[in-house]
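Pasting as-is:
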Amino acid sequence: MMMDTIKRTLWMLAVIMMACTSRPSAQQAARAATTAQMRFHCDTDTTLINQLLDKGLNSGITQANALVEFYAKQLLQTPYVAHTLEGDEEMLTINIHQLDCTTFVETLYALARTTLNGRYSWRDYAAQLESVRYRGGVMGDYATRLHYISDWIVDNRSRGNLREITPELPHADFMVKDIDFMSKHTGSYRQLKDDSAMVEKIKHIEMGYRNHRIPYLKRSWLNNKAVKAALRSGDFVGLVTRVDGLDVSHMGIVVINDKGEPYLLDASMAGGKVMLEDKPLYKYLESSKTNVGVRIFRMMP
């Protein structure tokens, strides 16, 4: 009897903790980006977001992964455009008409989370976009943006947004790597070229990822039956790279076809749009010279 009481108490505490971590704190809500701190691509961004959210709510879908897949398919054919977040100052960029691989994933998260919360306004979407894109869910300067996927998942996991399931997959492996590409290639980043103070901020973040242990699934295992069975449509996938200083070089979502074969749905630079790749995921990676495997992330309820 005593053991049952303890178990029930622990279960109730776990539920309370999950509820607390999945909601923005009062401090985060008070510091959320204002409209003046937002950058829109065009006047119809908010209209399109509201239309998408209306479709999502009316779809009857209540499961996170299913919503991710639903919204991804709504965004098929959206043009691929890189560097849409860059400007003279850091702002919460809202651009549903142009996507790259990272903003595509962020957009899917924000749409799905807004729908899971039963909300339907672009303002609710904007709050979720800020939550997944910035450290602690609050936009500050350029250094508060979660540039590295390893940093992105650590921060979002701590706030109940996402979790990494890579270590749970059959045949999962690990690599150890220094993640410091940005500070060693400042000329490739507009905000770092002539701002030594910002470079120092980025270096400070990178210090936390020296000898970082990265879970990943080698691409040779992606055709394994047990691995395929463990993946779900709507999982976020990061392509792990062999490039020095970098952890993940591309993002998208997993889509499982009716034969149980995982495919990649992504904002493709090569294809110039959001598209479902025509090869199974394992074959897609076989043709890559730099990608050695994948990491898999899943929305938390």
